[in-house]
Design brief:
There is one protein chain. This protein has 120 residues and is an alpha+beta fold. The chain has two helices and four strands; from the N terminus they run H-E-E-E-H-E. The chain has one domain. The termini are far apart.
């Protein structure tokens, strides 16, 4: 009898932890859109690993406030060439939590983008 209570309690905690991890992992994702025909703006000083290596990256990491009737916002500066090579939007658990607690009035925005190379 004592052993079954201990196992039941442990199984309950394990289930709670699994559900919390599932919720946390579902709310963290990244979406990247890439122009496969474009040439990225080069940056020879960028030695980061991965996709952005050798590309000039513009990073926007801010929190915006919206009025109750607003549903959209514009934050990205236009590229001099008029187009994007890549655009990455990241959603984190903290951003989702902030949006939920403030009923959509504040949003955390994390964006990385690369402009197209200017013609010579």
């Amino acid at each position: 009898m004592e052993l079954s209570k201990h196992v039941s309690k442990r199984a309950r905690w394990f289930s709670i932890i699994i559900v919390l991890l599932f919720i946390l992992l579902q709310s963290c994702y990244t979406v990247r859109v890439v122009n496969k025909d474009g040439i990225p703006e080069p940056d020879p000083l960028n030695t980061s690993e991965g996709f952005y290596r050798g590309k000039r990256v513009h990073v926007l990491d801010t929190t915006i406030s919206l009025k109750p009737l607003e549903g959209e916002f514009y934050l990205i500066e236009r590229c001099p060439t008029g187009g994007f090579y890549s655009f990455e939007y990241r959603v984190t658990f903290g951003g989702v939590l902030l949006n939920t607690i403030t009923f959509g009035k504040r949003r955390q925005v994390k964006i990385k983008y690369v402009c197209l190379k200017q013609p010579d």
